[in-house]
Amino acid sequence: MSLSSNSSSKGKQPVFMPLYKQVEEQIKSRILNKEWKPGDVLPNEFSLADEFGVSQGTVRKSLNALTMQGTLIRRQGVGTFVAEQSDKQENTSQFPIVRNGRRPEKTEIAFIRQTVKFAGLALQTQLKLDSSDKVLEIVRKRIFRQQICAVEYIYLPLKYFPELSNNAKLPDDIHQFLQTQYSMTIHNLVDEVRATPSNQDVSQWLGVKPNTPLIEVTRICSSLDETPFEYRLIYSQTDNFHYRHEGTY
Amino acid sequence: MSLSSNSSSKGKQPVFMPLYKQVEEQIKSRILNKEWKPGDVLPNEFSLADEFGVSQGTVRKSLNALTMQGTLIRRQGVGTFVAEQSDKQENTSQFPIVRNGRRPEKTEIAFIRQTVKFAGLALQTQLKLDSSDKVLEIVRKRIFRQQICAVEYIYLPLKYFPELSNNAKLPDDIHQFLQTQYSMTIHNLVDEVRATPSNQDVSQWLGVKPNTPLIEVTRICSSLDETPFEYRLIYSQTDNFHYRHEGTY
DNA sequence: AAGTGGTCTAGACCACGGA
DNA sequence: CCGTGGTCTAGACCACTTC
């Protein structure tokens, strides 16, 4: 196989895409097509170079770029793999609510309930659904050492995950589950944080007085092809916890 | 000049540092020493390669790494520059409070007051100060089109910025100012978000009823050498605004 | 036209992990 | 031991900016 020449007449702007970028896109699309699934090993650099008709150094540049984006994992002496959910959780603290003065810690999960519902308005707009689409709603608590730290509402569209309509309880690690069942991994996410008075339900679950100020984190997770596939609401009191984000410029 | 051989007997673990990493550290330290200041142009790749006694490709790898960390800016046909504050603000949305359903937008600033104080407890721990250290406190409002969106308390230690003790009002773009005056640029930051009832002062400034639930963002900015040099508290109501964070895995 | 960074190649050698 | 990715080099050519 060989890559396209550098000028294209499709768009208005002729698109100049360097070889390493083209290789990157090719690899990405094979992952999207599930030719290569999470955990799979890719051919080595020289095989890929042959296949794409470029030099090994060019392939290397693509693989390293995808590794930095978190799509691939490279292990010296072993090979290059499609990243699994578990690989990603090491780097970025999956769950953003942490104890004051601490780094992210592992949480326990206490299941409350799960139901299939029609998508409400917020879900329709954020997950690109319409009013006839259904979602699985999961409600559960996050706990650090007997201390209830947050309540989560998780919404998964049946459009993408049809088998969830049966009432089998999902495992605690939902993203792990979605990855093994649907080869769906998080590629990026958007968090919006607001302050809101605690409502009846959440107050009970968190063990706080109604109208206590809580933070409400709205999290939307998207896959590699930019499909938003999960909507999540997280409620937490912030006497002992906070939402945390650390960034490098 | 030439770099150290790959094995060192200083630490407990013999440290193997690849050449490109050593070059990276060298360049970083020259920036810290203010040999190269924000906005300065670096020598070209071949000059640096000569100077460090490595090949041009190795220097390139270092420069690209530092570019991705936001420390340098490279412009084809022109040269490689030490990043300025203005370069950084383009990539990462400096100010994290945005209107609902929007991307980050430019805000106006309304000055309220500024005072020199002794550092309180939170400041002492977070900025590594002691009780005799003084800070400049700046209080001001953030405004989107006549709509007050947030109140900011900004704390700058006189330890790092001694000339601020005179009562001259600082310009709106504080980071721009700190960069030109002190060659101090943000390298990373930590945000902690909590929910809190609005107090008397903030209620007035934001124009909300006392005890309205607000978000409180505690932001600590650090420089390239990991010195935390600014502590900031941001208060905002979240009927029309929210704290936003977008991340790629 | 001169000088910069950007892309691409080809090949050498090293370090690591597993059989 | 072999095969993998990691580092490093040297050199060619391209694209962009400035003069």
TrEMBL record, chains A, B:
Keyword Transcription regulation: yes
InterPro entries reported for this sequence: Bact_HTH_transcr_reg, Chorismate_lyase_/UTRA_dom_sf, Tscrpt_reg_HTH_GntR, UTRA, WH-like_DNA-bd_sf, WH_DNA-bd_sf
Pfam families reported in the protein's UniProt record: GntR (PF00392), UTRA (PF07702)
PROSITE patterns, alphabetized: HTH_GNTR (PS50949)
Keyword tags: DNA-binding, Transcription, Transcription regulation
HTH gntR-type domain sequence ranges: 17-85
Domain of life of the source: Bacteria
PANTHER family for the chain: MANNOSYL-D-GLYCERATE TRANSPORT/METABOLISM SYSTEM REPRESSOR MNGR-RELATED (PTHR44846), MANNOSYL-D-GLYCERATE TRANSPORT_METABOLISM SYSTEM REPRESSOR MNGR-RELATED (PTHR44846:SF1)
Protein name: GntR family transcriptional regulator
Organism (species): Fluctibacter corallii
